[in-house]
Amino acid sequence: MRYTVHVHPRAARERVALREDGALEAWVTAPPVAGRANAALLALLATRLGLRPREVALVRGERGRQKLVELPLDAAVVRQLLEER
Q1: Where would I find the H helices in 5-74?
Q2: Which CATH class is domain 2-84?
Q3: What is the CA angle 67-8-32, rounded to 5?
């Protein structure tokens, strides 16, 4: 499934949350330089959702804060995993 993610680079700590509208919001400590924030986002999602890094893909939004990522999980599973942690 594909999810919209709003990313906040250069955050004090890394975390990810599910918004009420079904989109994800992520805070990463990496700066938005040379794809480092994108790599940190994908690693964060993989870690938090218990996925292998290759199972998380950036579909659109390489240069902006709004991203589209593809995950092999449906919305109910993502919600459950994020609420557990």
Answers
A1: 36-49
A2: alpha beta
A3: 80
| Cβ–Cβ < 8 Å for 42, 62 | no
Residues sharing a CB contact under 8 Å with residue 23, sequence separation 6 or more, in sequence order: 3, 4, 5, 6
Nearest to 43 by CA among 56, 33, 32, 34: 56
* CA 63/CA 57 separation, integer angstroms: 15
Read off the pLDDT of residues 27-81 as tens digits, 9 standing for 90 and up: 999 999 999 999 999 999 999 999 999 999 999 999 999 999 999 998 889 989 9
pLDDT in tens, 7-18: 999 999 999 998
CB 61 within 8 A of CB 67: yes
